[in-house]
Amino acid sequence: MKNILLPTDFSENSWNAISYALNLFKNETCTMYLLNTYTPVIYHVEYVLVEPSRYGMADAVRESALEQLDEFKTRIKKEFNNPKHAIESMAAFNNLISEIKDIVKEKAIDYVVMGTKGATGLKEVLFGSNTVHVFKNVKCPVLAIPDGFDFETPHEVLFPTDYEINYKDHHIKPILDIISLYNTRVNILHATYGYDLSEAQEENKKVLEKYFEKSAYLFQSISNQTIEEGINNFQLKARINLLVMINNKHSFFENLFFKNTINKIGFHLNIPFLVIPSKNNKT
Q: What are the TM regions of this chain, as residue ranges (predicted)?
């Protein structure tokens, strides 16, 4: 049984991500947690220090959040009506990242599924700041769904890696769990720059082979391209339905996303993106 967390701000972008999750796990027994976090408009230090209920505002905002969650819940039942899926609503007076971290631990969440759109609505910024903060701070696989992306069966998965990771179960299980649901092939992509793999990289590659031995997989390599060029070019020649990366400190993932290049691969990346933390809640 899977536990899936679905943060929502009640936008169509977040509904789109919810729809994707419901389709992806349609044959799995799941509990889907719909989460809305809220802070009143006049939220500031004095407000927190004084009992919020004195103003009666938190209650009003909470009621509104719960009503909208009920509307989404009704919409899910109307459009999907899947007896395998239990839907639970959660409204929290908290910031999004803190609440997600708490729920991931408390409910043993397997995946957080959310939309990618930034609050600015700018098309050229693929990942909104919330999504990037979740990538960075939450120790749980996060599946980010681009705005307007209609569900596609993930037949072809692209998994770029530098083989610098000592792969463990918590790195690979989230991939295996998804590809086991479908007839999926994993394309393991490595960018080479004229150097042979080190002994450690060769060992890590063998570990990956072992993990995927019962799955369809291909080792792919590109030369003289940056990893973002490689991702974009590979997408052009193969119909990739899901991009997967491990957020490993000091790896190319960090270079791509956390060094003023948040939207570097955003211009052409219009497919779901699964980000797996290098450490999980148990490590």
A: none
